[in-house]
Amino acid sequence: MTIHGLLLCDDLLFGSQITGAAHDLGCKVRMVRDVGTLSHLTDEHQPSAVFLDLHSQNLDVDTLVKQIKNRKPAPLIIGFGSHVDTATLKAAQQAGCDLVLPRSALVQRLHVDLHGWLIRKV
């Protein structure tokens, strides 16, 4: 099955919300827990979207976003994090994430926007 998206996330419960919503749409989002695996799979599968839990361990969002943006075609990069950690959310925007959302807003938008994020014409 084609991998439509990659998800960097340590939280199995939250990750299952995203992967489950994708599955319901007939899409596959693969969850990974480390940046190295994410980078490797991004090269290998050329996903349409990459979801970044901004609170993942060892995440240098500036470097990772630049690496992902250099790929052709570049996937949509969606960063998400705690709504109270506005500094991290702002840093992700400044690093070049295409969309940055609090976790709660991401969950609310999954059933409306996920298909468009995963099935993109580039």
Description:
With 122 residues, the protein is an alpha/beta fold. It has one domain: 3-Layer(aba) Sandwich (Rossmann fold). It has 5 helices and 5 strands, in the order E-H-E-H-E-H-E-H-E-H. A 5-stranded parallel beta sheet has the order 2-1-3-4-5, with helices on both faces. Helix 1 packs parallel to helix 5 and helix 3 runs parallel beside helix 4.
Give the tags.
Rossmann fold, 5 helices, 48% helix, alpha/beta, 122 residues, five-stranded parallel beta sheet, single chain, globular
Count the helices. How many?
Answer: 5
CATH C-level category: Alpha Beta
Rounded mean pLDDT is 93
What structural class should be given to the helix and strand makeup?
alpha/beta
Shape estimate: globular
The CATH homologous superfamily corresponds to Response regulator
Summarize the helix and strand pattern as letters. EHEHEHEHEH
Task: Offer a concise description of the structure.
By secondary structure, the protein is of the alpha/beta class.
